[in-house]
Amino acid sequence: MGAHLGEEDLAAAMRGAATLRACDIGSVSPTPDGAVVETTRGFVSVGSGGGEGLLRLSVGIPDFSWAIGSTDDLGLLVEAVAAWREGMPLDELRQRFEFLELDEFADALDRGEPTSSQ
Fold this sequence. Notes:
It is a single chain. With 118 residues, this protein is an alpha+beta fold. It is built from four helices and five strands; from the N terminus they run αβββββααα. The protein has helices at 7-20, 74-85, 90-96, 104-111, and strands spanning 28-31, 34-39, 42-48, 55-61, 64-71. The chain has a five-stranded antiparallel β-sheet, covered by helices on one side. The longest helix is centred in the N-terminal third of the chain and has 14 residues, at 7-20.
């Protein structure tokens, strides 16, 4: 799905999938590379993952982002974005969303000290 969507289409598709799944992902803004959602734990960006229909998920702060996983399931992806945005503990995120690869940068971002891991 993601490989054929433009940035505006991806943002709209994310909003639609979130509505269908009753997820609150907040405001989704189109970007040149896909779409972004701002959260209290930094921003979450979604873009094409290079494979057929693969969507890449990244988290970060201004001027630095970190890939945390990819999936071809837009519904599952918006559930993960909503859970990240709502502050779900990282251990629960890891268990619920197996496609996520949360490492020390995600841990530092979660603690509010991302620059220590850059």
